[in-house]
From TrEMBL, chains A, B:
This is Aspartate--tRNA(Asp/Asn) ligase. It comes from Kibdelosporangium aridum. It catalyses: tRNA(Asx) + L-aspartate + ATP = L-aspartyl-tRNA(Asx) + AMP + diphosphate. The keyword Ligase applies. NCBIfam families: PRK05159.1.
Length: 418, 418
């Protein structure tokens, strides 16, 4: 059997007899001729034959001769074909995959995700996701971080009891980890610099366009820092790595979705939380930024600094988790940051407490945190880290209004399948 | 402040005043002089000073002058030091981290994982793990696979109801995914070739040295195959990539643990299940291989083929999951394989059913599988894949008798913390 040629490579074989394989993306029957457009992982190729009754989405193998054709995609098409089905005749999807856009409601798309994701534009977002993660890892590897894999089943509902999923663990109560926070901090004591790409779980009781019950968190943590600015410098490199990787590894997806990638400035502009409140005209005693504030700040960063990224630093201690390091110079404020990107909070991070006595002082009952605190009892350097939501990143890159559009199989308040 | 030099780079700075930072690995007090050995992510460096009471594991920063010293590790040491603690004086760990080996029982080591993992030999295993995963991804990226991230919370206890963890999902019953099997198959319909590195969950009721409640699964799935041999060829490349990456990225760990890496033959030897039974002298009607059989087969592969890897193919259909593709030529047998490595099953894989009607024929009640079956209803190519247990891989590489030694924070029947 002659070896398979990918659709995108067909124009390089004009005059030759080749074999392609893929899904029947589109069947167009004219009076005396039928066109089959075949879709594979590389793109589309047109087949010309007298007639065909193979339904769209059926998987076929085609042997035929390549000829130049100005009207065909890529400037070539396959004639004199022998079409062999590899699957049964496919049932028609509830939407046309061959149209430029998926014309269906979001619930219909999500209910039919295995087939909706085949649409070239739906699929393209996940090519960008994969390229982003590859760039993230490469950037951190370059800075001598070690990749880790930590437990997703934990004994203690750690960061906030209200939004955690309970598990029956061999007859005991356990929880799904909301983040690898405690593990990555402990492992700074082992590797100094660690990262993890993995699922995190939040029993979010709200139905929003930017929260899910499971998402992919890009976590990092590093030791021997002076303060949160060292963490921000690492994050800046990680994001530059992500953008660079998308630029080189996801060229087709970028073109198909007509995406404009952001510039990552050498120094991402930074504004202190108190100044941020003032900029958006919020009362000085607001403890956090509302979504509208984040949008306004992003606009300000663009007009003032020409940057799509903005660090907001120094969030009030009372709105950050117990392990947050205070700002020694500004009582009530912390050595923490959020990174805003195109109007939303993309990353949360900061310096953490590293002295055992500091943890004992902030934890009312240290007993549930015994395993975690062990690391600090036995010596930990000043350290900090961050967490970036992967699906949210891609949503902003491709301008998807709902995070479900950049999640393969989203999980939320009502959705548990497919 | 002068910038930090890593311990391993100190010998390159003889005569200079430098700054190092790390943990006090070892303090040796002689009559008139004290040696502090400092450990950082790169290695060890010796400090000489008149006296010091800094306890071991305390984190310190040291400024001093580098001199050549034949007795010191790396041939250099730091004199005239100014030692500044970065943590509180550390409490003593329940074992000495400076000894060549961790002299403690496995339960003590696991109970104190955050500090036990700091031992250079404990840590080294996880450097090898990280290098392995990087090699796995690079090999699959090279073969144009797309990385995916799939749900760990699922509606249906899919592969075997007995070993699944239940979750309370917003008042509904849900389960932790035992594998990304259904998702990766569905996504062959989208990307043709996919892989995932992520946690999988098994409520294993047995306490063994090679099973855990959570482990890291390296999954892959690819379409347009002829049969399981195409999958085995991809797996062979993935494993060669892993070994190659360990060889280049984990040199220090390999030397420290005195590891002999396996050769990955161009063609990994293969034996059919029925012949395997005969080779180990088991009755011809045995439905599966016992651990002792796997050990015997590995020995046979070494003596007969000089290979530490062996494919066993054609397992009986009745012992494989419902989505397994039968061998058209041998009734009762399947187009499946296991890969044995150094006496244990490391990988399970095979060709899957790809016709909708085949699934309807094997599933007694297709309703719980509706979302999964959608992919097949709308056309799927012949495909197959595999899953490799990451912790088991490293355990065999470093010759760890218990998989808990190559898992950062293991989860089992009794262990849920740290």
């Amino acid at each position: 059997m002659i070896s398979r040629v990918l659709a995108a490579d067909v124009p390089a074989h004009i005059g030759a007899r080749i074999r392609v394989a893929g899904w029947v993306h589109r069947r167009r029957e004219l009076k005396s001729v039928t066109f089959l457009v075949i879709r594979d992982r590389s793109g589309l190729v047109q087949i010309v034959l007298p007639e065909s009754d193979v339904p769209e989405e059926t998987v076929v193998e085609v042997e035929g001769v390549v000829i130049a054709s100005v009207q065909a995609p890529g400037g070539a098409e396959i004639t004199e074909p022998v079409v062999t089905p590899l699957s049964e005749p496919a049932q028609a999807p509830p939407f046309d995959l061959y149209r430029p856009n998926l014309n269906a409601t979001l619930p219909t798309i999500l209910d039919n995700a295995p087939v909706a994701l085949r649409h070239p534009k739906a699929r393209a977002a996940f090519t960008i996701t994969a390229a982003s993660v590859a760039g993230y890892r490469a950037a951190l590897d370059e800075m001598s971080f070690t990749e880790i894999h930590t437990p997703k089943i934990v004994e203690t509902a750690t960061e906030s009891g209200a939004t955690v999923f309970g598990i029956d663990y061999f007859g005991r109560r356990a929880y799904l980890a909301q983040s690898p926070q405690f593990f990555k901090q402990s492992l700074v004591g082992v590797f100094e610099r660690v990262y993890e790409v993995g699922p995190v779980f939040r029993a979010e009781p709200h139905d929003t366009t930017r929260h899910l019950a499971q998402y992919t968190s890009l976590d990092a943590e590093l030791g021997f820092i002076t303060d949160h600015h060292d963490v921000m410098a690492v994050l800046r490199k990680a994001i530059a790595g992500m953008v660079g990787s998308v630029k080189t590894r996801a060229v087709k997806a970028l073109n198909l979705l007509e995406i404009r990638l952001p510039e990552v400035p050498e120094i991402i502009p930074e504004v202190h939380f108190t100044d941020a409140l003032e900029l958006v005209g919020a009362p000085a005693d607001e403890p956090d930024l509302a979504p509208a504030h984040e949008r306004a700040l992003s606009e300000w960063a663009m007009s003032e600094h020409g940057s799509e990224f903005l660090f907001v630093t120094g969030y009030p201690m009372r709105k950050r988790p117990f392990y947050t390091h205070p700002d020694p110079a500004r009582p009530g404020h912390s050595n923490s940051f959020d990174l805003l990107f195109r109007g939303v909070e993309l990353v949360t991070g900061g310096q953490r407490l590293h002295r055992y006595s500091d943890y004992l002082a902030v934890l009312q009952d240290p007993e549930p945190y015994r395993g975690y605190l062990d690391a600090f009892k036995h010596g930990m350097p000043p350290h900090g880290g961050f967490a970036l939501g992967l699906e949210r990143w891609t949503a902003r890159l491709v301008d998807a209004p709902n995070i479900r559009q950049t999640t393969l199989f989203p999980r939320d308040l009502t959705r548990l399948s497919p």
